[in-house]
Amino acid sequence: MSSSSADDTEYSSQLQKVQAAGAEFLYAPYYYSVAGPYIIPQARSVGYQGIIMGPDGYDGLQLTDNTAAYNNVYYTTHYSPDDTSNKKVQEFINAYRKNNGADPNTFSALGYDTIYMIKDAIEKAGDGATREEVRNALAGLHFDGVTGSFTLDKTGSPKKSVIVLTIKDGKPTYSTTVNPS
Length: 181
Prior knowledge:
alpha/beta; 2 domains; 5-stranded mixed β-sheet; two-stranded antiparallel ribbon; 36% helix; elongated; Branched-chain amino acid ABC transporter, solute-binding protein; Peripla_BP_I; BCAA_transport
């Protein structure tokens, strides 16, 4: 699809071209506020029934009343609320609901894990550590959190699994996990 501004709400002409080309897969890297009310329903309204996939920005999709339009929609993200194997996920969700009266999204989970990663780095660096020592303590840090288990490389980047969710009956549902090679 061609570039667009953040204020665009009409994508039908681009989506008609996708449909006319016979595409079976559409990667639409938008945020929930655009993908949910505009991209996905407009794709379906021009007849596109293939897979629509997006990034973690789909978490919290703003759905229209036609929840069937969101079938066959997938997105990659950092954690799944359906994960019952990781005790930390369910504890996080319960605490978040109790404190906020709502369900957490992936950005909440990332923020939560970020704070605990920094805490771990501060503890690893030791009492009286400088900012540089805390930053250096992140390199090689192994972390087990809500968004997974991983080790940061020397630049602070994790090599971690990616969760794929799909929309079923208007709700994000676990589909699969893609592990790094």
